[in-house]
């Protein structure tokens, strides 16, 4: 198995990174933005050039297919996402999409004849930036979110998913995105680790056994506005101060959950009216809260809920608690974990099993098909920031392991 750097892959990663709403080294590609649409077009061109077939479902999940000699057999799939949060780096998701394309191309060039079709899936909106909910495409594929729930989504400008997908050329019934169990024999997602462990321990390949349980909620807080000079402190119902206390409760609940894997982030706070001399009357805040241990996470969430209500009562602030998602963790398929380990070992790569603390489309693929993930090291674990970096050598090793897995599974 060669670990030589596939230079066309490195070039393509750079080409795709240039399709961004923010200048390099930042990458920003929000769902159905001009950059997301341009990236989709660019990827479709690469797939056609390689001689693969293309299909898009009603939510815009893109399926790049290499038909096997027995097309009725369940397909073997890989893939990830190309959307990127504001000021992201160029590897998150992209390594899985372009690395998957590279693995399929290398197999084709080497004369592999798949019996099971091979499919590379570029999932729509793994990132929650536009609609607040992550893994929209794979959630719909798994049926974890219904077509009606997806139709009710609105972006910060009040635009609906239906409006945006129609403008992006994705038609049809969202209910048709759901995939039946048995459609896929296996799904393997290649991804950068987004944590520091592989690099710190000098390990080439992480094979994912479990994906942590993500949750997110939105709080709409309503207090009372007024003049910053004229309203005395005891008379105030400041929505932002309630939000600030709740953000600290989130931190405290994560620190005291009893599970080292509990993490809580208040990543978005919008304060209105947003003037220095006006008391905040309305706040929207969104909180991301995760754990590998679902029970510990849900206990902590309940504690935050109780605490937040008490804070708001004391401050005379109304609270509307909206659950965005509260997903269970996913367990990876043992035989696929073993397969990836075997392929890494056969190539002479060091490897270890690990947990994914980030979520991925694999979390939802695992609901209806055997799934695992291959992780590669990234510099200092940096991710969701412009200086995210994985070396061409590290990426090539991940692609090599993925390729061997796809080869064996599609025989
Ligand atoms: C995915 O981007 C995540 O936030 O885990
Ligand atoms: Mn991400
Ligand atoms: Mn990702």
Q: In words, what does this structure look like?
A:
With 411 residues, this protein is an alpha/beta fold. The chain has two domains: 6-212 and 330-409, Zn peptidases (Aminopeptidase, 3-Layer(aba) Sandwich), CATH 3.40.630; 213-326, Alpha-Beta Plaits (2-Layer Sandwich), CATH 3.30.70.360. It is built from twelve helices and 15 strands. It has helices at 7-17, 34-49, 94-109, 136-142, 147-151, 161-167, 197-201, 239-255, 294-315, 334-346, 362-365, 392-410; strands at residues 27-29, 53-56, 62-66, 75-81, 84-88, 118-123, 184-192, 205-211, 213-222, 263-272, 282-291, 318-326, 330-331, 351-356, 371-376. Strands 2, 3, 4, 6, 7, 8, 13, 14 and 15 form a nine-stranded mixed beta sheet that branches. A four-stranded antiparallel beta sheet has the order 10-11-9-12, with helices on one face. A two-stranded antiparallel sheet has the order 1-5. The longest helix has 22 residues, at 294-315. The protein is globular and about 80 Å long. The model has no long low-confidence stretch (mean pLDDT 97). The structure holds glyoxylic acid (GLV) and manganese (II) ion (2 copies). Residues 127, 134, 358-359 line the site of glyoxylic acid.
